[in-house]
Automatic annotation (TrEMBL):
InterPro entries assigned: ATPase_AAA_core, P-loop_NTPase, RecF-like
Pfam families attached to this UniProt entry: AAA_21
Domain of life assignment: Bacteria
Protein name in the entry: AAA family ATPase
Gene3D superfamilies: P-loop containing nucleotide triphosphate hydrolases
All copies of domain ATPase AAA-type core, residue ranges: 28-341
Entries under PANTHER family matching the protein: ATPASE AAA-TYPE CORE DOMAIN-CONTAINING PROTEIN (PTHR40396:SF1), ATPASE-LIKE PROTEIN (PTHR40396)
Length: 394
């Protein structure tokens, strides 16, 4: 099967994303000022994951409903929100691409969805859902597409419904894109929760939670089940935390029902519980856990990845993100010129805000960034961004 990859995100009228088409590589780093729309791009993926997990109406209501999400700039409020993705998630040839698009209308409420994906033998299938009707078209096909009622509610989603129905009737495309989007991780470390004890993991794979609240349990599982990844994580932590000798675990309830992370540091007689460690240390260990996850989702989004970290940690962090990008695509937001200094032109997505309140993403092409780098005779990218030559002023 082709490796699961997202190639492009297209958004219309979602918050500040009036009309955005964003190419997605192994590592895409959003840079720009507050309010430029970086967080809104990540929120699009949160919404899609929510549609898979809870259905369309609950996912919208959790975020305040259509009226809170639709673009509010310009002369007239739009009547719809549209989100589309292109990528490869079905067993197709390398030169074929799959697509999914969701359009939501405000008043009266309505939704339309389109699935296009490859089948074996260079065939393809298109599913269009309007109201309670689904139309399936196979190409090449001798007969035109057939429509039928499938009992789906008008405010429900095919993304959450079709994967539960017969894969023979609708192919595997809906199930595959739903699995991709449902598994994506928008990683936002809750330092207070990550420092606390968590349950001891049971047998089987352990997933790192989006807020890292099960950090201790995940790291214990990593040590026991993936010793090579655990050894690399410890080495990375020691490289950035010079006083760290090793990471260890303790069971505060005495019955091995819960576990905490402890740090063994040079010069200290007693280990330090993670609860007593610094904010930056807890965030660093959480990020390293994410980057050394042996079973990552297809896409990992990270808000302000550099927050709370010493600049000396950024070199290692960027290196590990690139390595992990071979297994899980990364979409990252940052305000840090020091982190941008360590990026390649093709990894940067400059974000700006237009006069009508809409986000310009990307505000400048990769080719233009490369031209500016050449003309600057090799100045660091963070320096060029900070000076305003790349746009997206701080």
């Amino acid at each position: 099967m082709t490796e699961r990859r997202l190639i492009e995100l297209h958004v219309e009228n979602f918050k500040s994303l009036r009309h955005v088409t964003l190419p997605l590589g192994p590592v895409s780093v959003l840079v720009g000022p507050n309010g430029a729309g970086k967080s809104n791009v990540l929120e699009v993926f949160r919404l899609l994951a929510g549609v898979v997990r809870t259905d369309l109406r609950p996912a919208l209501e959790e975020r305040g409903g259509f009226d809170r999400l639709v673009f509010r700039g310009g002369q007239e409020r739009p009547g719809h929100i549209r989100i589309g993705i292109r990528g490869r998630w079905s067993p197709t040839a390398e030169d074929q691409q799959d697509e999914y698009a969701l359009t939501v209308q405000g008043e009266p409420f309505a939704r339309e969805e389109t699935f296009r994906y490859g089948l074996q033998g260079r065939r393809s299938q298109t599913i269009v859902i309007r109201g309670e009707t689904v139309t399936v078209t196979d190409l090449p096909a001798a007969q035109p597409g057939a429509s039928e009622e499938i009992g789906i509610q008008p405010d429900s989603s095919g993304l959450s419904t079709l994967p539960r129905l017969s894969s023979h009737r609708f192919g595997s495309g809906p199930r595959q894109v739903a699995a991709l989007l449902g598994s994506l991780r928008v990683f936002d470390v809750n330092v207070s929760s990550a420092s606390l004890p968590s349950r001891v993991p049971k047998t089987g794979a352990e997933e790192l939670w989006d807020d890292a609240a099960n950090l201790a349990g995940f790291l214990l599982w990593l040590r026991n089940q993936h010793p090579d990844a655990w050894a690399q994580l410890q080495a990375d932590a020691a490289e950035v935390l010079p006083q760290l000798e090793s990471l260890d675990f303790a069971h505060p309830d005495g019955a091995a029902q819960s576990v905490v992370v402890v740090l063994r540091e040079r010069g200290l007689l007693e280990p330090t519980q993670l609860l007593d460690a610094s904010y930056g240390t807890i965030r660093l260990l959480s990020l390293l856990a994410m980057l050394h996850d042996p079973h990552p989702p297809a896409l990992t989004c990270v808000e302000e990845i550099d927050h709370g970290l010493h600049p000396q940690a950024l070199e290692l962090l960027v290196e590990r993100v690139r390595e992990a990008g071979a297994r899980s695509q990364f979409l990252i937001a940052t305000h840090s010129p020091a982190l941008v200094d360590r990026l390649k032109p093709e990894e940067i997505v400059v974000c700006e805000r237009g006069d009508d309140g809409s986000s310009l993403i990307p505000a400048i092409s990769t080719a233009r960034i490369e031209e500016i780098v050449r003309a600057s005779e090799g100045l660091p990218l963070g320096n060029l961004w900070f000076s305003g030559l790349l746009g997206g002023d701080l």
